[in-house]
Amino acid sequence: MILYFSATGNSEYIAKYIGYLNNDKVINITDYLKQNKEMNFHSNTPYLVVCPIYLSTIPSIIFKALITAKLEGNKNIYFIMTCAGSGTSAAAVSLKKIAKKLNMNYRGVEHLSMPQNYLIFFKVSNEQENNEKMNKALERVPNLAKIIKENKDFNKDKVGLMHKLSIKPVEVIFNGLCIKPKKFYSTKECIGCGLCSKLCPLNNIKIINNKPIWSKKCIHCTACINHCPKQAIEYGKKTIEKNRYVAKKFKAD
């Protein structure tokens, strides 16, 4: 069984691709987050979690959702992390905690370098460059699917002590200083379609008088700003005139 969380489609594409290759069930974690539902599943195949890296590790909302989940049946769990960077960094620390909490066998983590979507801090590439990066990542997917199907291990790199000790302080500082929901706003181009509210994994956006209003639970997943059909959402001055990014949808050919 494949569980995924995806804001702009990178992790969704990988999850559905592997699901297609291994003829496995694919479930969107966002649906459970939005409804505040516990994740109780039974799978005869190994579990695979596919999600992005946030600040070198697994998003906090996914960590919290997984450690309270009930994953019955197969006792093996794999992880694939997507990110514009080049490695899983300290993610393995949290992933091992999840496996231990669930009394499951941690089979390792692999990283796929995908197109950049965090336009709040970074530049988003053009369509050609994004396609090239996506295609390069997809070349690795059949082998990863095969490893899971054959019950072999993913990468199990060790994380150094100093890196382990720095994870929480860095996360607290970043969340406190950098994640400011109040900086989101809609421009006059907004048509009040409500897509941003529908996509927000934490139900943090309400449509009032045909305009989106952000509350305080934002995690900077960037689903709202990247998916807006009119490019009518900005984050202060940091996103003005920047490209937006949404991954192509997986289609079995």
What structural class results from the helix and strand content? Answer: alpha/beta
Which band does the percent of strand residues land in? 15-25%
The helix/strand order is: EHEHEEHEEHEHHHEHEEHE
The whole-number mean of residue pLDDT values reads 90
Secondary structure: number of strands: 11
Our measurement of the CA-to-CA distance between the termini, rounded to an integer number of angstroms, reads: 22 Å
Largest sheet, if any? 5 strands, parallel
What is the general shape? globular
Stretches with pLDDT under 50, minimum 5 residues: none
Question: Treating each run of at least 4 consecutive H or I residues as one helix, how many helices?
Answer: 9
For the biggest β-sheet, the strand order reads 2-1-4-6-7
Radius of gyration, in angstroms, nearest whole number = 18 Å
The helicity comes to 25-40%
Question: What oligomeric state do these chains adopt?
Answer: single chain
Summarize the structure in words.
This protein is an alpha/beta fold and 253 residues long. Helices cover 34% and strands 20% of the residues. It contains nine helices and eleven strands. Strands 2-1-4-6-7 form a five-stranded parallel sheet, with helices on both faces. Strands 3-5 form a two-stranded parallel ribbon. Helix 1 crosses helix 6. The radius of gyration is 18 Å and the shape is globular. The two termini are 22 Å apart. The mean pLDDT is 90.
